[in-house]
From TrEMBL:
PROSITE patterns: GST_CTER (PS50405), GST_NTER (PS50404). It comes from the Eukaryota. Residues 85-209 form the GST C-terminal domain. It is an enzyme of class 2 (transferase). Its EC number is 2.5.1.18. GO terms for biological process: glutathione metabolic process. The gene is Gsta3_1. This is glutathione transferase. GO terms for molecular function: glutathione transferase activity. InterPro entries: Glutathione-S-Trfase_C-like, Glutathione-S-Trfase_C_sf, Glutathione_S-Trfase, Glutathione_S-Trfase_N, GST_alpha, GST_C, GST_superfamily, Thioredoxin-like_sf.
């Protein structure tokens, strides 16, 4: 065992991508195991490795962790990205949960039927522009600090950066009305650990394509 966290999921974004983002932002190297067949997935279940018969699976500090939210909370706490007290943690949780709702729409988008794609894309744009991004624009403007919580880099900043880039892939001009978020994105992009993660050849996964969708349906088919 190398001591590096070991991530088991498909070779694509899905529910593992925020975990990759958070580990990378914390400067932590990790190993990945990719599921490509239903047999591999079934074996994990049969061996009792997956508590709720679901991935992502992250092996870290002698634990086999499942449930994305629990994994992210643990990583954030372990690497000091979870605020200095309960109040800061509550704020981070609120921001992260809100962004998770937006990211869920983006996660499901590649699985939309062709005739629903345009409608679903409009929904992502509308929610990002009118519900989610205005919150973070206002927070950054009001406290005039570089980061969302406690003027210190946290899990909430990582999640926001991931969400901004994910929405921009679908709606390139989405930040046009959000000057604070434009500045935030530039600052985040230049943080050494995030800059490294954004380079070609990093563990960051590309947007889901038809092959990824096909693999997901094959591995998880009932």
């Amino acid at each position: 065992m190398s001591g590096k966290p070991r991530l088991t999921y498909l070779n694509g974004r899905g529910r593992m991508e925020p975990i990759r983002w958070l580990l990378a932002a914390a400067g932590v190297e990790f190993e990945e195991v990719y599921l490509e067949t239903k047999e591999q997935y079934d074996k994990l279940i049969k061996d009792g490795v997956l508590l709720f018969q679901q991935v992502p699976l992250v092996e870290i500090d002698g634990m086999k962790m499942v449930q994305t939210r629990a994994i992210l909370s643990y990583i954030a706490g372990k690497y000091n990205l979870y605020g200095k007290d309960l109040k800061e943690r509550a704020l981070i949780d609120m921001y992260v949960e809100g962004l998770a709702d937006l990211m869920q729409m983006i996660l499901m988008f590649p699985f939309s039927p062709p005739d629903a794609k345009e409608k679903n894309l409009d929904s992502i744009k509308e929610r990002a522009t009118n519900r989610y991004f205005p919150v973070f624009e206002k927070v950054l403007k009001q406290h005039g600090q570089d980061f969302l919580v406690g003027n210190k880099f946290s899990w909430a900043d990582v999640q926001l950066m991931e969400a901004i880039l994910a929405v921009e892939e679908k709606v390139p001009a989405v930040l046009s009305g959000f000057p604070q978020l434009q500045v935030f994105k530039t600052k985040m992009s230049n943080m050494p650990t995030i800059k490294k993660f954004l380079q070609p050849g990093s563990p960051r996964k590309p947007p889901p394509d038809a092959h990824y969708v096909e693999t997901v349906l094959k591995v998880f088919k009932k």
